[in-house]
Amino acid sequence: MSLDPAPRTPPATAAPGPRALLTVTGADRPGVTARLFAALAEGTDGIPPVEVVDVEQVVVHGHLVLGVVLGSVPVEGPAGGAAEEAAFLAGLGRLAAGVAAATGVQVEVESASDPGPGAARGGRPHHVILLGRPVPPGAVAGAATAIAGVGGNIDAIRRLSDYPVTSFELTVSGAEATALRTALGAVAAGTGADIAVEQVGLARRSKRLIVLDVDSTLVRGEVIDELAARAGRAAEVARITAAAMNGELDFAESLRARVGTLAGLPVEVLDEVREHLELTPGARTLIRTLQRLGFRCGVVSGGFSQITDPLAASLGLDFAAANTLEVADGKLTGGLVGEIVDRAGKARALARFAAEHGIPLDQTVAVGDGANDLDMLNAAGLGIAFNAKPVVREQAHTALNQPYLDAVLQVLGFTRDEVLEAQ
């Protein structure tokens, strides 16, 4: 026998009463919202008992905007029609005037009995995140125009952060996901702002594991380029690296070619390069914040374990996967040991780490910049192309072109205040 109560429904004879929208605007101060609802609770002549149907409130730089949809409590019998609605609105008008006089705000009353054509919108709503340093008005205008162009409506806007990047989150309804991403991608390319799109729902805040590429993502620059410079082969290796990252050359083949140029380097060079690594701005903030929120954090790199393992240990990461350089007699042989962590290998590493911690792939995040990251980015619940090559930006779930790695937190929906609270 089920213990769940049966769903409550109004009596079959109950007729829906009129509805009204009260819009409160003015200088914000304590007690305005309380005064309004106290007046509604007390009622006034001409107003039947009311119910609160919807409430939205926001304060922008000390200016209050409060919207309240009220409905008269349904009663048995036929609806009263236009005369009932007119009396309802008139009564609320008198009440609004009293609240306005007592608080110094403006209170407007209008009919909400007909919600209009935009009230019922198909499809799942989405969050659209705009990021920039700063966010230009043209980016907001372009995003709003693109959203409307694919049948979407902006239901709400809130600021997520003002440092190190400015970011805003738009809640959008009525737009199909692929069309929305395509339209906003064109706006991002044309304005230079970053625009990310995520579906509204529990999945967004259920992320529990993140993997980061290392070279040009977690750290600035490419480790193998630094090693090649010490071997006197920098230009040759840079050309191979660029071709591989742009997807023009098989990664495993390019890796073997680049590692081959390192033959004869003393193993101590690895320590020198590691000591001179420079973390990407915001990297520590991103990792520290996610760790305090309970995330499992790790790195998956096409680089070398002799570099990434100590780096992961210094950051307190949960896991690391990378290639291993072969060493003999204190020198690099120009070869590799064990399985190569290439494009497919990165995706396998993500799946392995997630399985080890009992975390479904749709609750994972991957961040990278190169073509060899694409399988990993697409396997994750959210794949973020960070300052990536064009081929990667086009295929990842979303892209960030800001110089700060902690901008990933805004894509995940965290505000600047929440980030500071987690420090």
Task: Report strand order across the widest sheet.
Answer: 14-13-12-11-15-16-17
Strand % is 25-35%
Q: Estimate the global geometry from the Cα principal axes.
A: elongated
- As a percent range, the share of helical residues equals 25-40%
| CATH fold label of the largest domain | Rossmann fold
User: Could you tell me the number of beta strands?
Assistant: 17
Give the terminus-to-terminus CA distance: 49 Å
The number of domains? 3
State the CATH architecture of the largest domain.
3-Layer(aba) Sandwich
Let me know the largest β-sheet: 7 strands, mixed
Structural class given helices, strands, pairing? Answer: alpha/beta
Average pLDDT score: 89
What is the CATH class designation of the largest domain? Alpha Beta
Describe this structure in words.
By secondary structure, the protein is α/β, with parallel strands linked by helices. The protein has three domains: 16-111, ACT domain (Alpha-Beta Plaits, 2-Layer Sandwich); 126-200, Alpha-Beta Plaits, CATH 3.30.70.260; 209-422, HAD superfamily/HAD-like (Rossmann fold, 3-Layer(aba) Sandwich). The chain contains 16 helices and 17 strands. The chain has helices at residues 32-42, 81-103, 137-149, 177-191, 202-205, 223-231, 234-245, 251-260, 268-275, 283-292, 305-315, 343-356, 374-379, 390-395, 408-411, 416-422, and strands at residues 14-15, 19-27, 50-60, 63-72, 75-76, 106-111, 126-132, 153-161, 166-173, 194-199, 209-212, 296-304, 319-328, 331-337, 364-368, 382-386, 398-400. The strands form four sheets. Strands 14-13-12-11-15-16-17 form a seven-stranded mixed beta sheet. Strands 3-4-2-6 form a four-stranded antiparallel beta sheet, covered by helices on one side. Strands 8-9-7-10 form a four-stranded antiparallel beta sheet, with helices on one face. The longest helix is centred in the first third of the chain and has 23 residues, at 81-103. It is elongated.
